[in-house]
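For practice. Any example?
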Amino acid sequence: MDWTEVTVTVDAAEIDRASDIAQMVVPYGIYIEDYSHLEEEAKEIAHIDLIDEELLKKDRTKAMVHVYISPEESPAEAIAFLSERYNAEGIRHTITTANCVEEDWINNWKKYFKPIPVGEKLLIRPTWEEEYEADDRVVLNLEPGLAFGTGTHETTRLCMELLEKTIQPGMDVLDVGCGSGILSVAALLLGAHNAVGVDIDPLAVKTAIQNAERNQVQERFTGICGDLTEKVNGRFHVVVANIVADVIVKLTEDIEQFLFPDSVYLMSGIIDTREADVLRALEGKFEVFDRKTERGWVALAAKLKK
């Protein structure tokens, strides 16, 4: 049986809120079309000047969230939920549906994920892309799976930029909420000694282990399925958490037990309106020594106060 593709069109300025609401419908299989910063991102992120003509024709004022509903579920219920939530949030929207065979939606989003340089040292390369120029960058081969980070979102890129400034040979890294394992693998490729990735989703842990294998760092990576640090032991030179503000606040309550006196605590996934909450959670225990921001997202680097 065919799946149902539900397409939600909103003003581009509302795409982050709209995608967060759409993610409530299904924990997998959504992708976002947003061309509002096309030229800027092509130059600053992909470092290219020539953009496909079809992309240049796209409406920059609108963005779309694509949600895929399995044959066993009710598209009508999903549409009713989305419409109700968008109306409650005051998000103007239109919703359309179309039939979609499973193979199509599994692969649809891949055409929007191309090799992308991050920071000064890394190139994120999706495994299905054969043509790319790495120059002198370290190549991170990534199969993100259906629900996990590709490295193209601001939160992941900001975190990786802080990570490459932090990692020194011999360091041990804890990656809380590891998803695809992209940060753990990046740390290992940058010279870390070992990395432990933790995620509450067993599929995420499986995906992270597979990505460690793809990059031939599996012997230095350990995947743990658990809630935050409940199954973690030991201390780490770097703890990285690319999650959301509320979870970072909770994590910060007792994260110092996993740190050495000079360890670095990297946090990302913080929307700018919640930065103050995170800073309050750090107050008294940590000192923030680096901060990066992009399009409303914030990443922080902190150390324990002496």
About this structure: The first helix runs from residue 15 to 22.
